[in-house]
Amino acid sequence: MTPALFTLLFLAVLVAHLAMECWLSIRHARHIRRHRGHVPTPFAATVTLAEHQKAADYTVARVKLGIHEIVIGAIVILAWTVGGGLDSLDRAWREMEFPGLATGTGFLISVFLLSAVIDLPFGAYRTFVIEQRFGFNRTTLRLFIADTIKGALLLLVLGGPLAALALWLMVVAGSLWWLYVWLTWTGFSLLMLWLVPIWIAPLFNRFESLTDQALAARIQNLLQRCGFKAAGIFVMDGSRRSAHGNAYFSGFGSSKRIVFFDTLLKALDGAEIEAVLAHELGHFRLAHIRKRLLFSMTFGLAGLWVLGYLASMPWFFQGLGMAQPSSHATLALFVLVAPLFTYPLRPLASWLSRRHEFEADGYAVRHSDGTTLARALIKLYRSNASTLTPDPLYSAWHDSHPPAPVRVAWLEALVARSQPRRGQA
């Protein structure tokens, strides 16, 4: 392949990605507006028209911002690649005449930091305009700045050594460098699973043990029924930044912990919290977390194998605006363009994620109460202003969770099928 031909291929893929994302987003916004005037029948008794319209307006506002992010993101990729941005940055680092490893590491860290700076206005607008307008934002400007600085420092402390190690392996490990880099990345990912809940998350939020003894007893009973052991049950001060509620698992092995946002505990009663937790336990007991990790590792291995081939192809660098091939240019270019070429796989990833959500709901019905889970989900849809009427095609392409009407109907069907068996038992 010639550099010019690869440039044309890259531009065609970029334009197709941009057109598809914009079309899906516009379609999504139009679909929501079209159904803004009435609450879907399954939710008519639990969601008011005002709440439904707030969710519609909130989602459309986020979609509009997303379209701007898509367009600016495409422009930034063009500027980095065929526009010569990466090449200019590479020359600037080479002119400082640092050792090769320091030059490559500095180049990569610069790319990531500059990309974060470009994304910063979107994050600020989302937080202080959209979230503020709809009553969700509780982040102060001081906290926003502190979070940004902490994120940048973590990139330097963790990303710098990881980038240096990857570049070193690319030089000394021979033709199989991509395998050693993959092993390094896999090890780092597993380390982060242990490190994040214990050391990194507390840098941003406060975690306290659950003090509600009645709720703690209910949760411990559920954990016993499900055969699950956790290092602790914690409440996170999510209300410090947002009114949105959530719950999640983090860590693995002895560091596994259950975390509830304090906003979630205020929105749901004890039975509903138990049902939501049963769903989350389903992800663990059905090996969804392990399957997703294995999928990510396999996909990463395939990507690095492809990168091992591209690293020896001059047209890959020249076609993307880099005059001089290098290990650090290889990694930077791949990080920028790989999402464009793997974009057609996104619906498959979304489908697998939604399938896991259905399976976890089934687990929750078997170990808790499906009707209560459905009631809890509706409360969360309402309090988080989640749209009840997403565009089906947009949802199939992007959403990791089933649309609200589909999920609630699925739960009702599961409950209906389980009742005869319970009655016979």
Please give a structural write-up.
By secondary structure, the protein is mainly alpha-helical. The protein contains 16 helices and four strands. Strands 1-2-4-3 form a four-stranded mixed sheet. Helix 13 packs parallel to helix 16. The longest helix is centred in the N-terminal third of the chain and has 34 residues.
Give a summary of the structure in a few sentences:
The chain has helices at residues 3-34, 49-80, 85-95, 100-133, 141-172, 177-200, 213-226, 262-267, 270-285, 288-310, 314-319, 327-341, 346-367, 370-383, 392-398, 404-424, and strands at residues 207-209, 233-236, 247-250, 257-261. By secondary structure, the chain is mainly alpha-helical.
What is the molecular shape?
A: globular
Main sheet specs: 4 strands, mixed
Percent helix range = over 70%
Mean pLDDT: 91
Write down the Rg: 24 Å
Distance between the termini: 67 Å
Determine the structural class based on helices, strands and strand pairing.
mainly alpha
Question: Helical region count?
Answer: 16
Order of helices and strands: HHHHHHEHEEEHHHHHHHHH
Number-wise, the strands total 4
Low-confidence stretches: none
Give the neighbour order of strands across the main sheet.
1-2-4-3
Strand content: under 5%
